[in-house]
Design goal:
seven-stranded mixed beta sheet; Glycosyl transferase family 2; Glycosyltransferase_2; Glyco_trans_2-like; alpha/beta; transferase activity; 9 helices; Spore Coat Polysaccharide Biosynthesis Protein SpsA, Chain A; single chain; Nucleotide-diphossugar_trans
Length: 268
């Protein structure tokens, strides 16, 4: 099977009040992929103006839709242009656009694989609440999907077009992180394999606080997963598969959150 052309991939960057970092992130992404979309979620800090003159597509929401709504709009635009795969990354500088080619190269061999950027992070330097919240989310989503998903809350991903064309998930303003979690479960239900690509994690800009609220968002994610499990009789097969894969010799390196044998290393 011939490889998919690099021009068939698009990058979507949702942005809300990220004027301090968005131009740099978008320009670096454009250097790695010819098709870049920035979805400005009704920012009030001049985000749209910060992108003036840059060779990227800017879609502006007239009202705030939240991250999920912005992603959905970017997906729709890219799919209408024939995208085979869509890469997403955050606008705050935490994700390195230089790592985009690793996703594209992996997807070119199998356009139907769902890729997540598993962040290599020393949990001793991270917020304990955030680290714990991520571990809880990984467990619940892994159970519901029947796959050992690594770093389920990472926004650095590659979505196969086939998934986005068939899965319809609510994307209201209050479902940003629920949306990104639910689509993993739906991908697994379609028989799609979810794999990891090891990525670095940069320092978040001081002017760009995280929109992830560990307690509230994990409660919402857990509630969503619980309903899905109840609907499938608690899906014991999924729990068995998750535990079997986690205990079957693929245990994460405790020094770094997101590193395991199944993670594909970046090419130097």
């Amino acid at each position: 099977m011939s490889k998919v052309a690099r021009e068939a991939y698009w990058v979507v960057i949702p942005s809300y009040n990220e004027a301090a970092t968005i131009r740099d992130v978008a320009a670096r992404a454009r250097h790695r992929c010819p098709n870049v979309i920035v979805v400005d979620d009704a920012s009030s800090d001049g985000t749209e103006q910060a992108l003036a003159g840059l060779d990227v597509t800017v879609l502006r929401n007239e009202a705030n839709r939240g991250k999920a709504g912005s992603l959905a709009r970017g997906f729709e635009y890219a799919l209408s242009r024939g995208a085979v795969g869509i890469i997403t990354l955050d606008a705050d500088g935490q994700h390195a656009p230089e790592e985009i080619p690793a996703f594209i190269e992996r997807s070119q061999d199998d356009p139907n694989v769902f890729l997540i950027g598993a962040r290599r992070r020393d949990h001793r330097r991270a917020s304990f609440r955030r680290y714990l919240a991520n571990c809880i989310a990984d467990f619940w989503i892994g159970w519901a999907s029947g796959q050992a998903i690594e770093d389920s809350q990472s926004g650095f991903r590659l979505y196969p077009a086939r998934l986005l064309q068939t899965v319809k998930i609510p994307h209201g303003p209050d479902r940003s992180f629920v949306y990104e979690s639910e689509i993993l479960i739906e991908a697994a239900r379609q028989g799609m394999v979810i794999k990891s690509v090891a990525v670095s994690v940069g320092r978040r800009s001081a002017s760009s606080p995280s929109h992830f609220r560990p307690l509230l968002d994990i409660v919402r994610i857990t509630r969503m997963v619980a309903w899905k499990l109840v609907g499938r009789g608690m899906y014991p097969v999924g729990l068995y598969r998750l535990l079997h894969r986690r205990l079957g010799g693929r245990t994460p390196d405790r020094r770094h959150y997101g590193e395991r044998a199944s993670v594909t290393p970046l090419r130097k």
